[in-house]
Amino acid sequence: MFGDLSSSLTSRRNAESAAEVDASVYEYDSVYDSLKPKKQATKEDQEKRPKYMKNILQAADVRKRDALIAEEKKIAREREAEGEEFADKEKFVTEAYRKQQEENKRLEEEERRREEEEAKKNKSGGMSAFYRKLLDKDEQRHSDAVRAAEEKAKHGAPEEENADDDKQEKEKTEADIAKELNEKGAAVAINEDGQVVDKRQLLRGGLNVGAKKKESVQREAERQAERPRKDVTNQHFGRKQAQRERQSRMIEEQLEQSMKRSRDEEAAQKEEVERASKSRKTEGEISSAKERYLARKRAAEEAKKTAGGA
Fold first, then answer.
1. Phi and psi (nearest 5°) for 22?
2. Residues with Cβ < 8 Å from 167, sequence gap 6 or more?
3. How do residues 48-92 score in pLDDT, each as one tens digit?
4. Which end of the chain is more exposed for a tag (fewer CB within 10 A), N or C?
5. Rounded distance, CA 167 to CA 146, Å?
6. Distance (Å, rounded) from C-alpha 134 to C-alpha 243?
7. Which pLDDT score, from 0 to 100, does residue 59 have?
8. Which intervals of the chain form a coiled coil (predicted)?
9. ∠9-13-18 over CA atoms, to 5°?
């Protein structure tokens, strides 16, 4: 409850003795501040301004201007729909309204020129063109891979045909050589199919058929080694195809989300314009009703005065 009284007394005694030696021994903040170099006051420090408020206010002004332009276009369409119905009526346009229309036209023209300059600088068409180029590049890569596989398959078939032709040529040569040796007096045994029974007899006759056999074995080994490479290539093409399909689906989803956001923004802007138009209409009706009420009141007062004078 009381803690360690002896250690507390010792700490207090040490603090008092240190203060007697140096009175500023515990002034940590002032010593630390004196060690740091003084910062030069800049113009930004003197003029403290919001960092993001300027951009927010500019965006609000742009939205307000766009809403006014949309409202003017809506009113113009309504006037066109009315046609000549109110052509004989007198029109009143205030100077402030005329200046506002001129300012809106000027801002709209500046916005159009800025968009044209950005389009000329980029020459890419925005994100839609970027996604389209990405899809075309993947499609081209896939087409090249399929074309290479088809050419490889086409080149593989003649090799097998050549191997069969070599085999037939080999058998034919052995039969012909056996026949020639028999004509010279050798006794090479040939079966009913015209094949040599014992090929060692051909070796004794001076013909070395081991070289062709070795070449045939080598070709067979090469074909066996080529099959795993073909399988790996097909698997690689399959993975590329699946990756391309996933990228296509992802890009389509991003495009759909972008279009949905654009539609939502247009709907919200349209709703805001309609709400503003309804509120103005309501204020006009209230003002008209108030004027009619005051007119009736004045008429009633005048009628009372007339009746009292009579």
1. -145, 115
2. 216
3. 667 788 888 888 888 888 888 888 888 888 888 877 777 777 777
4. N
5. 32
6. 13
7. 86
8. none
9. 150
Whole-model pTM? 0.26
The two structure tokens encoding residue 104: 């809106």
What is the amino acid identity at position 292? Answer: R
Structure tokens at 135: 């899809």
CA distances, 9 to each of 1, 19, 26, 85 (Å)? 16, 15, 18, 102
Output the CA torsion 145→150→155→157 (10° steps): 140
E-strand stretches of 224-277: none
Nearest to 242 by CA among 147, 134, 138: 138
- Give the three-class secondary structure for 256: helix
The mean pLDDT of the chain is 74
Contacts of 170 (CB under 8 A, 6+ apart): 209, 212, 216
Are the beta carbons of 177 and 201 closer than 8 angstroms?
Answer: no
- Taking alpha carbons only, the member of 217, 212, 185 closest to residue 201 is 185
d(CA 123, CA 142): 27
Residue 207 neighbours by CB distance under 10 Å? 16
- Angle (CA) 299-300-304 rounded to 5° is 115
Nearest-angstrom CA–CA distance, 130 and 255? 11
Q: What percent of the chain has pLDDT over 90?
A: 0
CB-CB contact of 104 with 69 (8 Å): yes
Q: Which residue has the tokens 């009633």?
A: 300
* Six token digits for residue 84: 């000549």
